[in-house]
Amino acid sequence: MPVAISYAMSVGAMSVRAMSHSPARSRAPRESGSPVHFVYHVPKCAGRTVDLHLALALPQSAYHRTQKRRGVGRFITRYDRTDLPDPRDTKVVGGHYLGISIDSLFAGRPIKRSILLRDPASHFMSYYNYRMTRYISEGLQPYGVDVAYGAMQRNFITHYILRNFLELSWAQIAILSDRDKYDLVNAFLSTFWFVGDYRLCDEFIATLGDKFGISVSATPRNTCAELVRSVGWTPITIDRLPPHILAQIRAENALDQLLWETWREARHDTSAVRPLPLEARSSSFIGNEASRLVNQILRRVHRRWGSFDDAPVPIIHGDPATPA
Questions:
Q1: 22 in a domain, yes or no?
Q2: How many Å apart are CA 205 and CA 238, to the nearest integer?
Q3: What is the pLDDT of residues 128-179, one digit of tens each?
């Protein structure tokens, strides 16, 4: 077993022990045999479409969406421990903050994990469009893609899985090599029931529909067209990204790119997937995080008071919205 996987398992075990005294844990059946589905939502990977479909189609007791924990407690677990799923009735648990320590609530029940992924360039583009439309709707200012990309964590999806799903802290992630991170996330995904590109969302929902006897089609949510309709934002598309930003994304997000290329067509055949090789490379996680902090400060300034340079922000009021 790779060092990174053993390390993460020990971290997960500590999280599980921390949950052993929760009221919900004490209600967990020892053996029920019925599987529970965990649907992991990475931002801008069709998670909201899946979430709302399940929330509307399943009984309230059958679907539980984890919530983000607030305050200093978020440094212990990213999910709200005061709002946990009932292990007796829950059929599906989903959310952005679905930590591995929640597994212990369902002792004796098989866990079927699912996730949709996205390539780093289109993920950045979609995340940028989403943020701009949200800020404009709140009366704030849009800002340029240079600041937006500078403020975004490199290999966002890889680190999101490590932090929010495998529950590694920032310090624990910082000491891992890129190889360890890549091996760890691939090992985690190899245990999944369904993995694929976000454009397989309809296929995934149809599979869940057959499984639970609910509708096999869903209304797309959080699409770019939906978000821009009332704010007059012209979405950025891949072909409109500045060439230097696109080049940076491709050069600095090799882990996310390889994860997507490896798993985009996996579907249910996850145990047969062989990860693409990761070339030997050096990167500075801490250095990137320091640079990101500077751009996060700039982002806050720009969205409140606008940009102070002459670089145009690509907003064209009244243009037709195009889905991203």
A1: yes
A2: 27
A3: 999 998 899 899 999 999 999 999 999 999 999 999 999 999 999 999 999 9
Confidence class for position 29, pLDDT limits 50, 70, 90: very low
173 within some domain: yes
What is the pTM assigned to this prediction?
0.85
CATH assignment of the domain containing 289:
3.40.50
**CA-based angle 55:197:160, to the nearest 5?**
75
pLDDT digits (tens, 9 = 90+) for 195-219: 999 999 999 999 999 999 998 888 8
Q: Find the domain containing 24 and state its range.
A: 3-305
